[in-house]
Amino acid sequence: MKSETSRDVLISVAQAIFNLCRLTLQLLKIIMPFCYPCGKMFMRSERLNGERRACSVMFDQIGVVLASTKRFGTTGIFRLRGSVLLKCSCRKEELKTEPAFESSLGTGTVTSSRMANVVRRIRIVQIRGFARVLTVIGRSKLGARLVARARDIRAVRQLLEWLLAYYGTFPSIEAASASAARYIPASHDHPKQMSLHANFAEVTRESDYPVLFFLSPIASELRSVFDLGGSVGNLFFQLDRHLHFSRELVWTVHDLSFKREAMLEFARRKNEDRLRFSDQLLSASGVDLFIVAGAIHFFEPNLADLLKRLERLPKHVIVNRSPFSDMEDIITVHDGGLWVNPCKLHSVSRLCSAMGELGYELVASWPVHERRTRVPLFPDCDGIYRGFYFRHSRHV
Ligand SMILES: C[S@@+](CC[C@H](N)C(=O)[O-])C[C@H]1O[C@@H](n2cnc3c(N)ncnc32)[C@H](O)[C@@H]1O
After folding, report:
1. What is the pLDDT of residues 217-243, one digit of tens each?
2. Chain centroid to CA 136: how far?
3. pLDDT band at residue 339, thresholds of 50, 70 and 90?
4. Atom of ligand 1 nearest to the CA of 197
5. Whose CA is nearest to atom 27 of ligand 1?
6. pTM of model > 0.70
7. What does the angle CA 230 – CA 231 – CA 236 come to, to the nearest 5 degrees?
């Protein structure tokens, strides 16, 4: 009788412990997606003792990652921040963290638990909704003053930043990127971006006209152009339609290295042999024209600091279709719906003064009315898209 009672007690205690563990796990499932980026799968394949084996690493529901190899059935626990592997503990020696492991990591398809996904989606709706409300409030003079006052109070700012998450402001592009990747993993790598840019090759946008205007007197003299953040090279095709560049022109498209093939294939399909691809900024040294459209805001250093790295400065520099700040530099995230791109609204006055110090004369600047970036916490920043044409005085 006595032993039966103590057995019942033991069973109840075990059940209570089991329920407590389950509850903790459920709670972790809800909380962890906010602590770790979820939804990305990291994959690697490696060769061990001459044999190739596959190893896939993915997030489990509570934010740590489980790795397994088909051959060894190994499971290890990995910790990641953004796409950086911080720690790895595995039973198998072969899977221990080593520099080669990090460098062989690549992003793959999105996998995360249904629960984590639902929570993440709700959070994204909340973030976008709150950002919208704050933006609307900031449009009135009184509202803008209120938001500016609120952001100066530390505790209120912290609360606002939590509610805004990646719509907040950040000390660096890297920090903005890490924050955004927690919610939406896709960025410049989203496949839709390439087709979107390819379509832009066929149309002349309103903001292209000032560029056509300033390039038309010099177009026939151009022999080398460097197109920073040029994607598939759409700008070349759009401008060439009107300006009929020389057959001797070499147009170098600079972009992230994974876009190389898509860009070259696009040029091949269009039967165009004047285009090249480079992921090296230094290839811009001494070009006739350095052009950056819709992309300078994706670079953290300001334009003059980028140009300073070149052995020889380009003669003409055109910046177009980027949001700028009429106050200080502001780093935030541009929400494209399916993707998020960390960006920097460079200060207009800093841009112009730094270019002036480098010997450039500002020939013209223009507003771009196609879009506008509003930073909810900084309603006092106009976030207007702009264009600039600089010419180096030494070359004149
Ligand atoms: C909005 S698109 C602009 C495309 C084109 N210049 C236009 O005006 O239509 C921005 C481009 O900048 C590229 N980009 C972003 N960050 C970059 C980086 N750090 N280095 C090189 N390219 C980058 C993106 O991959 C993308 O192709």
Report:
1. 999 999 999 999 999 999 999 999 999
2. 25
3. very high
4. 9
5. 231
6. yes
7. 55
